[in-house]
């Protein structure tokens, strides 16, 4: 992008500029021109009514397409309360937008290095995910999300020039492969751009899970890109439930009916009270005439009270407290203004609640938030936690006012001056604040508070912090306490678990912290997954155990819920149902308790008592088979008899450890001579190298499989007294001709010597 004066343009650019200059808004002056990458991309910068704006022109389309795209832009502007105006060009199949000129885009910030901190970049990613989610929920798309079309100022992320890049289809890597000239983008287009943005902002610092999600976002096929919910989980963004209200539904419309948006040009009603409505001068009668008598008197008194409250709130409440019924805790006006979820209208209510202590305004805000609404710019979760019914009756007016002000600091920054020190507030408000804080950046106020403050809360919250205190945590501002507060209040994001587990210096503490939050994450699949990932990524001994499930996924552990794997790690068992392959795989788990659990479940669900010794062998430390070989063997032993021989042949092709095969052969000495495994195992050992102590050879010499006995006879040494005694004993009981010959040959060698 280049910024030039109109006089500095070349001939081609001047011709384009002059064509556009015909449509400059009345009373405006062009002060500069922004040049895009293409020769046609000339963007006048105009000064109008003291404001600097930029104009962007669409290509020429058919009338219906122009109308639809202009309607989509109008809907975008209304949805995000954006200061963006769409102008149709008369008698032309074209339109242009007029929006505030931004001196610095995110691309400028990145190129100049003004935004480099990991925390800042992560915040931008989270804000971007929320913005894309807000669009997607209404089946809308920006279409060209890129650093040049984003501006990050004062903690807010603005999306610039929606649809414009998408319908032009410029040569930009942030545009998805499916972009087409003049075609309104689908929400999946923003998914592709979101993946590009994440890669640009966070680069190689992504976790393996996040990298996998980004790779899926960048897939060329839109239908193969992951849902936003999955992206939100991977990056610790909690998707809030969306509540559509009457005001919003009137103002946003849908892409299918852009005409409604174009016709709905009346500005939203200003939220401030119109004093003329309650002036002392009687208004002229309207329609069928005015109201008289007692009703008029009632309205006059109500109007005077309302006006007095607005202009002189302190005096109003001082008097009103002595007049029953005059202090209203509810206002239809405030309810409607706040429920619009439009920033200018919400600000009126916020100022009344925080700066003028108006209970009706406070109730309008709290009722909306407690009802499940999540307006942009409001920390709704903080307020819901602070006003939870578990302790709502215990809160003072100051507590409620402070909690409301804390929730509205982004919307109403000046309200922060009204908030007393945290130590003066109810522990529930402190819990709510802690639950909204970054674990590694808690601030001095929280660090100065004792964790016993939160331990005083009623169950189930208080006992959690009591147990954390027993582990050595002393302050609310400790990362582990902040992490626990975030998780306990219903926001199981990755950073919360990282903060919690950052305190664990050994496996004992890791286990204790996992046990502490396990009851909480049982209720949330997202929370269980985040906890499991946090443990897996630690890299210590407990993290190694968690990684075991991903090292070899022969038993489809990725399909097993994280809570099941956490139960196995923590208690050695689970009530969840697993399949044969998974129980078989657990026989190779590093923890003896888990192996014993798997042994019991295999015995109970899949095998008879005849296989007891085999299962014990496979669950012991002596099992030198690989995980694949262990799973395959038990699957083979469970296979139909007609398939056993074929499966066994394949199994021995895996080259199992000969010493373990010997143990398994001895373990199956309780079956008859028709057992195919014993025969194949003996054949395998005959061509393998192995060694066995005398007790094992003695068991093998008594095996029902003749070839197994021959193997034992071959290993026994007649020059050794115990071996010679066993050979002679077997000579008196051996009935197989082949085995007798082997015995006699062995003893004959000894006699010749």
How many strand segments? 8
Average per-residue pLDDT, rounded, comes to: 82
Strand order of the largest sheet: 1-2-3-4-6-5
**What is the alpha-carbon Rg in Å?**
37 Å
C-alpha geometry: elongated
Which structural class matches the secondary elements? Answer: mainly alpha
Low-confidence stretches: 241-328
Distance between the termini: 100 Å
Quaternary state of the chains: single chain
Number of helices: 38
List keywords for this structure.
single chain, 753 residues, mainly alpha, 6-stranded antiparallel beta sheet, two-stranded antiparallel ribbon, 38 helices, 6% strand, elongated
List the SSEs and their pairings.
Elements: E1 2-4, H1 11-21, E2 29-35, E3 42-48, E4 51-57, H2 63-79, E5 85-88, E6 95-100, H3 106-112, H4 118-137, E7 150-153, E8 156-159, H5 164-168, H6 187-202, H7 208-217, H8 228-234, H9 246-252, H10 258-263, H11 293-311, H12 313-320, H13 332-339, H14 343-354, H15 359-370, H16 380-386, H17 397-407, H18 427-434, H19 444-447, H20 452-455, H21 461-470, H22 479-488, H23 494-501, H24 507-521, H25 525-536, H26 541-551, H27 562-571, H28 580-586, H29 592-605, H30 612-619, H31 627-637, H32 641-652, H33 658-667, H34 676-686, H35 694-701, H36 706-715, H37 721-733, H38 737-752
Helix pairs in contact: 4-6, 6-7, 11-12, 13-14, 13-15, 14-15, 16-17, 16-18, 21-22, 22-23, 23-25, 24-25, 24-27, 25-26, 25-27, 28-29, 28-31, 29-30, 30-33, 31-32, 32-34, 33-34, 35-36, 36-38, 37-38
